[in-house]
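TA notes, week 10

Several of you asked for a full example with nothing omitted. So below is the full record: structure tokens for the whole chain, then the designed sequence directly under it. When grading your own attempts, check the secondary structure regions first.
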């Protein structure tokens, strides 16, 4: 969540349960709620594990071997007893010998282009051998209030260049020395990709009229990537970085035409406060109305080749991408699950045309070039039930009403305006789909729906199905099982794995959360999720850290760990003041976990993480190990 997003939150009272909400609480009985899927009827999905209400309250999962940590409001990164957390890299750390060191104020754009970017988010670990690796890390955005003495109020062209250089992706060479992973300065894979790095536009939308600009009349070569939220990793060794809130970087002095399509993507005259359009005409909608169409994509990067050109894969659709969870289906097709993180937007699936070849990695390199995009529609078994069936609706030109009469002249049109195509086919509006994570060995997929204050308030966002609470402050985790256990089938069963909530503040209502939420493990706004090899589900939060009102007792943002079979959830770590915990990846032996601390001290909240004293707070990647060298979580 950026401060601009948060401003939107501040305009809306968060700490009250409005009258409408209370009505809904009464209308959905707690009994039915607990008797439904969220009572952890996981048995339907994991047939070998019988479940009951008692299991949810138990603390016996063999997967969760650590002692849970309490909530915290300290300016600290707190891990369980027997675990160790060390800093790997922070915003501004130097990647190349010739680059000046980061200063707490007065940095330059040139220096930043050779330093670790800001607001690290999704990341992936690429092992080379036991002691050498690459870590590719997204740098989502920056905090002007921490970056500039003027806090963003008086942006210059140089300031915009600095901010642009702080965005994008950092590729880091890592070496294990003296038993711990370290960043190698001037390492051979080190690379900064930022908002001005040349990249290719590829796939069905390449060369489309809407992608052409004066600087790129062919519509096939873009500059840069920004607001890189979460990520994905392919089995052929590439990194996927996902462009999320790209809209806010564009604006105009007021004379640009804002089309309905631009409005659907949140593009307007004002922008979100980044002010790039005031100093860089590329972001001025009056000068370059097509430039925003070149963002909102998934970008594929070869981390092993620092000279490679990143590729925007338009077959995966254009929206506010969260992550890209890739699985190889049993029939060899590559399936990528994709969330569009905005209130009332949708959940997508891509299925490649070609098949994965485990014996020829080079042959896999273009698998994301061509395929079929789908969007999800959910049905509840009965009104108010928290489980049901669903289907993937194909977003292919000529099908499901995606025709010229309805405004879609080609497949490229559908991909560039995927949100509008999703509406045309009748997709379900969701409570902000964030990360998707597929279980490593079973055909079950999880997605965080982080929160949605508009649920039950806006006409197109009814309280229904997997989005069962009006003015949803807390979020939920949805899961589905594809029919026949095959990721390429178009039907699935779904239920809710957990409804986050606050059983202390809202006992006996849907806002208390599901049966697996207690006063000891409660949290709000699940966002980053990922499985480890053993099948533990790691859950990171990007929520309200006020510790008051609806959020009383929930403390700072945190990471939890769940047993997907029993539903048990334990808190694994807590982050420093005003941070979000986001980004997770493991070494192949599962004995080191990397976790991101994003925007500690945003909005001048008073953090000095990670250096303490009076230092500027800096987003950082942390390394977590066990003192006894064991597997993380076990
Ligand atoms: Fe960048 Fe939806 O979080
Ligand atoms: Ca974030
Ligand atoms: Ca996120
Ligand atoms: Ca979020």
């Amino acid at each position: 969540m950026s401060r601009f997003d948060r401003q939107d939150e501040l305009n809306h009272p968060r700490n009250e349960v409005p009258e409408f909400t209370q009505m809904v609480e009464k209308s959905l009985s707690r009994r039915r709620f607990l008797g439904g899927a969220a009572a952890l009827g996981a048995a339907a999905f994991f047939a070998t594990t019988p479940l009951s209400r008692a299991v949810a309250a138990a603390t016996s999962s063999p997967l969760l071997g650590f002692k849970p940590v309490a909530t915290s409001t300290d300016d600290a990164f707190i891990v369980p007893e027997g675990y160790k957390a060390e800093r790997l890299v922070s915003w501004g750390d130097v990647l190349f010998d010739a680059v000046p060191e980061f200063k707490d104020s007065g940095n330059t754009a040139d220096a930043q282009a050779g330093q670790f970017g800001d607001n690290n988010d999704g990341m992936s670990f690429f092992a080379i051998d036991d002691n050498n690796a690459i870590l590719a890390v997204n740098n989502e955005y920056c905090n002007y209030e921490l970056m500039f003495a003027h806090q963003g109020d008086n942006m210059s062209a140089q300031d915009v260049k600095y901010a642009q250089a702080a965005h994008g992706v950092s590729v880091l060479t890592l070496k294990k020395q003296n038993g711990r992973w370290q960043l190698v300065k001037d390492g051979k894979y080190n690379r900064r990709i930022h908002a001005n790095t040349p990249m290719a536009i590829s796939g069905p939308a390449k060369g489309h009229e809407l992608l052409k600009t004066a600087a790129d009349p062919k519509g096939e070569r873009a500059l840069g990537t920004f607001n890189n939220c979460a990520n994905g990793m392919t089995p052929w060794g590439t990194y996927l970085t996902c462009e999320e809130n790209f809209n806010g970087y564009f604006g105009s002095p007021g004379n640009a035409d804002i089309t309905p399509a631009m409005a659907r993507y949140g593009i307007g005259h004002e922008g979100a406060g980044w002010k790039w359009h005031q100093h860089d005409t590329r972001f001025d909608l009056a000068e370059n109305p097509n430039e925003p169409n070149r963002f909102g994509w998934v970008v594929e990067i070869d981390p092993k080749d620092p000279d490679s050109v990143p590729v925007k894969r338009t077959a995966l659709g254009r929206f506010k991408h969260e992550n890209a969870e890739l699985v190889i289906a049993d029939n060899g097709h590559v399936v990528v699950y994709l969330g569009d993180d905005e209130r009332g937007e949708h959940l997508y699936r891509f299925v490649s045309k070609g098949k994965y070849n485990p014996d020829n990695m080079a042959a896999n390199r273009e698998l994301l070039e061509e395929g079929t995009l789908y969007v999800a529609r959910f049905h509840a078994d009965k009104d108010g039930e928290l489980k049901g069936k669903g289907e993937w609706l194909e977003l292919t030109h000529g099908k499901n009403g995606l025709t010229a009469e309805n405004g879609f002249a080609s497949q490229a049109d559908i991909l560039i305006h995927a949100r509008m195509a999703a509406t045309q086919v009748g997709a379900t509006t969701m409570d902000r789909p964030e990360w998707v994570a597929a279980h490593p060995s079973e055909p079950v997929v999880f997605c965080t729906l982080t929160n949605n204050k508009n649920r039950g308030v806006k006409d197109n966002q009814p309280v229904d199905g997997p989005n069962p609470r009006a003015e949803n402050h807390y979020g939920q985790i949805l899961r589905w099982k594809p029919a026949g256990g095959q990721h390429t089938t178009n039907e699935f069963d779904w239920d809710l794995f957990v409804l986050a909530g606050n059983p202390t503040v809202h006992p006996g209502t849907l806002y208390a959360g599901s049966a697996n939420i207690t006063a000891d493990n409660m949290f709000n706004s699940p966002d980053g999720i990922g499985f480890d090899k053993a099948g533990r589900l790691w859950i990171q939060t990007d929520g309200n850290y006020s510790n008051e009102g609806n959020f009383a007792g929930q403390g700072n943002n945190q990471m939890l760990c769940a047993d997907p079979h029993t539903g048990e959830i334990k808190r694994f770590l807590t982050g420093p003041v005003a941070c979000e915990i986001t980004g997770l990846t493991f070494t192949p032996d599962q004995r080191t976990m990397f976790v991101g601390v994003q925007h500690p001290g945003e909005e001048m909240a008073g953090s000095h993480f990670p250096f303490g004293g009076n230092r500027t707070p800096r987003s950082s990647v942390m390394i977590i190990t066990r003192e006894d060298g064991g597997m993380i979580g076990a």
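The two ends are 31 Å apart (CA to CA). Use that as a sanity check on your answer.
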